[in-house]
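Regression report. Comparing outputs from two consecutive submissions.

Submission 1:
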Amino acid sequence: MTIPPVLSSLLTAHGPSGYETTPAAVWRDAAAAFAASVEADVMGSSTARVAATGAGPSLAIVGHIDEIGLIVTHIEESGFLRFTGVGGWDAQVLVGQRVAVATREGVLPGVVGKKPIHLLDADDRKKVPEMKAMHIDIGAVDGEAANKLVRVGDVAVIAGDPVELQSGRVASRSMDNRLGCYVAYEAARLVAEAGGAAGEVIAVAAVQEETGFGGSTTIAHSLEPGLAIAVDVTHATDAPGIDENQLGKHHFGSGPVIERGTSLHPLISELLIEAAEAEKIPYTLAASGRHTGTDADAIYRSRGGVPTGLVSVPLRYMHSPVEVVQLDDVENTAKLLAAFALRLPADVSFER
């Protein structure tokens, strides 16, 4: 199985939180091929609407389009760039990485450097490196040269294209959460292809999830949907060192993960399960006793409350440059959400 072209374009676009313009343009261009209308808001979130065939409730399918990245905080007189993280990083994965710095003149290549291990004291060699001990080297001879190319506030992402692995698996940066916004796009496309659902289906590519749910908070308020499903990634538990007693069993090939929990509407979870079983789509269940750590946490409490569900794609090595997914899990997640939308009764009630 090869990477779908739209997903490939999303994965290669650079767009950390707050700077999602490039992947958002890719997403809107793709959605324009089937949607009745495609729009963007001042936050940078995008929507694609599939018209209703009846008087059913509107369904928002929300995947965030931002990724983690780096932001330049200081330019040294020597020409090296100091930085901090945009979103949550395991800092040790940054050592020795090539990066792409987005500047006003275009993308500038650089590398993440730190003091070589040969020069570290014995105790320091045992410590996990911190970001404050790292810098970005763009090859500038001094600070004056660097300042002509880069400004404080410019952002960077890890450089590198997606790699197709064995068994229909793919490695790439930005899987979290270009996968979610791709699934929202693809589910809406499938609904449009089927002629529409009883209620309007609105695919959403929300911004700024990694830094505080900015996009999902505002888009849920403005759309005021009848119900919503957040689409994100979750930890695949078939990698070494992961305790299934804590996280549950979510292996590659086991399909979408339907979450049940205190902030999620129980009827939506049940209807997702019914749709999966009716369409013979493999799935697993996960549970959250408080917050989910996803856009669902912002959506369900919008205005007077939005009935909200959560579906996730199993992912290995989250928040790294080599996140790995199995493509048929992505495909099945989109199929599940499309089936859910098409099966949703026009007179469904979420009162409880």
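Submission 2:
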Amino acid sequence: MPPKIAEVIEHDICAACGACEAVCPIGAVTVKKAAEIRDPNDLSLYEKGAGYLVCEGCLTCGRVCPLVDGFVENELANVRKFFAARSKENAGSQDGGVTSGILKSLFKQGKIDCAIGITRNEKWEPKVVLLTNAEDVERTRGTKYTSDPVVAALREAFEKYDRIAVVGVPCQAHSARLIRENISEKIVLIIGLLCMESFHRDVMLEKIIPEIMKVKIEDVRKMEFTKGKFWVYTSDGEVHSVPIKDVAKYARNPCHHCCDYTSVFADISVGSVGAPDGWNSVFIRTEIGEEYFDMVREEMEIMEDPKPGLELVRKLIDTKRKNNAEHFKEVCKEFSFETGIRSETV
């Protein structure tokens, strides 16, 4: 019998988080968005999922797949603390620089020896990288809004390092949590990012930026989704924006089935929604998250009661659920296994 992730793939809701590639003991799984051919007999062409003819039936991939695991109804139920923060060294950051600040401080203190992150070149082409010191973190500043199989990099990281931090969007934070619980305790910290949707690299770089925003990708300095619009800032000081609805339809299909906005499975979630301009909203979700944030607190400025606060976060959670929950529930009816949106607290 094919593993459960085969059904996730065939129904086109695979998030391409990379978890299955990270843990498959025989390397039968690869996640490559560029490939269009799926052939289980030719792994060089294999896009995503399990190679049926080489799979040994261990079913490890199903234990770390966020879609197989499903979602939770109340994604704020496990929030221990909510506040705004910004790094005291946040120059060049998207907002308050909290994620970068956490990683840099932990590297300097020797609390982590590796972090998984995404850097980009001048054409905004993203690349998943292993960060091994505070200086490396500088290369990953800023949000890219394109999707890459971040968690797949754990395969190499597990071979070389013992204290690994993972930074990712909700599906990646979810799978990293499942890997930590089922496969390896080398993941010491999971930082999840708030995410409404993400885009295939080619769609963002070849459609949205040049055709909809009418901007050359080489001129883009910063992108962000905020206040109901998608904003692009260029090197000449110009600011371009369009309503989010004009670009949301180009999001990856799996994103239209996702029911996690705030990275509920992370130790610490970080975003900008709910915090003032120039600050990050911070959600401490686990005892691990509390412990690690306390290690870096002196590097941060803290705002205990930020506005607009959790009220706005809840509105966006509801918006994402309204758009996506029914899509996911319909797909769940087609699966041979049980998954869905459960009422338990993470």
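Expected: both submissions complete independently.
Actual: both completed, but the second showed a warning that disappeared on reload.
Relevant detail on submission 2: Confidence is low (pLDDT under 50) at residues 33-41, 45-50.
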